[in-house]
Amino acid sequence: MYVVATVGNITVLHIIRTDHTLHEPMYFFLAMLAITDLVLSTSTQPKMLAILWFHTHEIEYHACLIQVFFIHAFSSVESGVLMAMALDRYVAICLPLRHSSILTPSVVGKLGAVVMMRGLLWVSPFCFMVSRMPFCSNQIIPQSYCEHMAVLKLVCADIRVNHAYGLFVAFSVVGSDMIVISVSYVMILRTVLWLPSGEARLKAFGTCASHICVILAFYIPALFTFLTHRFGHHVPRVVQVLLANFYVLVPPMLNPIIYGVRTKQIRDRVIQGCCKKDP
């Protein structure tokens, strides 16, 4: 899964970089998504492989905090990129004549910078607050990587402030992104249903299908992981570990496959590259 995620996302980035016809907002956001997936998978999966293959079950304290930072910061970034992609689909379908004037390269770059800064600034206090707290003697994290709630369970102190801040970040970041995505698709659905021909409606829905699949692949494991960590006290530990692994394994692997299969420009470039023969 790590190899597929790495090769797939690097391939998507290479195609977008080298094909100037793909230098459009949709593909710029897709490139941001690929970079985010590379960071997410690389921050967790090499250590997971080391645990499974070489039984290296220990992680250094500061390395654990760095892993917490990267997981949560870039999960926030991925959520923001999915929100930006939903806005791009809304403008492309509902305001097609103004798409190029609204989503200029400058606007796309600023939106990407805001999403990145939001993730870095909102998540940084996680590590700062945890690093100032005492840990119990039992320092075992019952899963394959350092996650904020899993690390908090090792703390021998009052963690209500940490819990409250974690909930604030979750609802202010993911909650606001999901609201924007939902409103965008309600507007898209309303516009598509008013299109005169069935072929036009089918084509409009087709342009959104890949994005909807990616949204489901990211938010469903994230939602289950969030709920089981905070409220699933009676959920078997093996289920919690499995869901936590799905959260960091599945989206980075599936995203390049989904866009590679469903996006004609990317699919054609991959096929051309595979079938290219030396003269």
Automatic annotation (TrEMBL):
<feature type="transmembrane region" description="Helical">
    <location>
        <begin position="178"/>
        <end position="196"/>
    </location>
</feature>
<feature type="transmembrane region" description="Helical">
    <location>
        <begin position="107"/>
        <end position="130"/>
    </location>
</feature>
<dbReference type="Pfam" id="PF13853">
    <property type="entry name" value="7tm_4"/>
</dbReference>
<keyword id="KW-0472">Membrane</keyword>
<dbReference type="InterPro" id="IPR000276">
    <property type="entry name" value="GPCR_Rhodpsn"/>
</dbReference>
<feature type="domain" description="G-protein coupled receptors family 1 profile">
    <location>
        <begin position="8"/>
        <end position="259"/>
    </location>
</feature>
<keyword id="KW-1133">Transmembrane helix</keyword>
<keyword id="KW-1003">Cell membrane</keyword>
<feature type="transmembrane region" description="Helical">
    <location>
        <begin position="239"/>
        <end position="261"/>
    </location>
</feature>
<dbReference type="InterPro" id="IPR000725">
    <property type="entry name" value="Olfact_rcpt"/>
</dbReference>
<feature type="transmembrane region" description="Helical">
    <location>
        <begin position="208"/>
        <end position="227"/>
    </location>
</feature>
<comment type="function">
    <text>Odorant receptor.</text>
</comment>
<dbReference type="InterPro" id="IPR017452">
    <property type="entry name" value="GPCR_Rhodpsn_7TM"/>
</dbReference>
<keyword id="KW-0807">Transducer</keyword>
<dbReference type="InterPro" id="IPR050402">
    <property type="entry name" value="OR51/52/56-like"/>
</dbReference>
<dbReference type="GO" id="GO:0004930">
    <property type="term" value="F:G protein-coupled receptor activity"/>
</dbReference>
<comment type="function">
    <text>Putative odorant or sperm cell receptor.</text>
</comment>
<comment type="similarity">
    <text>Belongs to the G-protein coupled receptor 1 family.</text>
</comment>
<feature type="transmembrane region" description="Helical">
    <location>
        <begin position="26"/>
        <end position="43"/>
    </location>
</feature>
<keyword id="KW-0812">Transmembrane</keyword>
<protein>
    <recommendedName>
        <fullName>Olfactory receptor</fullName>
    </recommendedName>
</protein>
<keyword id="KW-0716">Sensory transduction</keyword>
<keyword id="KW-0552">Olfaction</keyword>
<dbReference type="GO" id="GO:0004984">
    <property type="term" value="F:olfactory receptor activity"/>
</dbReference>
<dbReference type="GO" id="GO:0005886">
    <property type="term" value="C:plasma membrane"/>
</dbReference>
<keyword id="KW-0297">G-protein coupled receptor</keyword>
<keyword id="KW-0675">Receptor</keyword>
<feature type="transmembrane region" description="Helical">
    <location>
        <begin position="64"/>
        <end position="87"/>
    </location>
</feature>
